[in-house]
Amino acid sequence: MVEISDIRDVLKSLESLKGVVDGLSDDDDLFEKGLDSFGSVQLMLALEERFDIEFPDTLLGRRSFSTIRIIRDTVSGLRQQEAA
């Protein structure tokens, strides 16, 4: 299981969310808090590297990266799929 704290650590590395991650709830919309399209690509790449996963094209929409909770659930699901 991927922990929320792991996702927060990755988010803290993004320039677009610098200084706001600690104040976010798990369900805050990251795009409303400063995440942009370039940042979402950086986030995807950082998550792939950190968790040794690959996002399929079907999960490359805005929704997959919209909240900390959704990111955690998406990454957890991908890790389970790759482990199977």
UniProtKB/TrEMBL annotation:
UniProt domain Carrier: residue ranges: 1-79
Superkingdom per UniProt: Bacteria
Positions in coiled-coil regions: none
Annotated signal sequence range: none
Pfam families to which the protein is assigned, alphabetical: PP-binding (PF00550)
Protein name per the record: Acyl carrier protein
Organism of origin: Methylobacterium tarhaniae
Upper taxonomic lineage: Bacteria, Pseudomonadati, Pseudomonadota, Alphaproteobacteria, Hyphomicrobiales
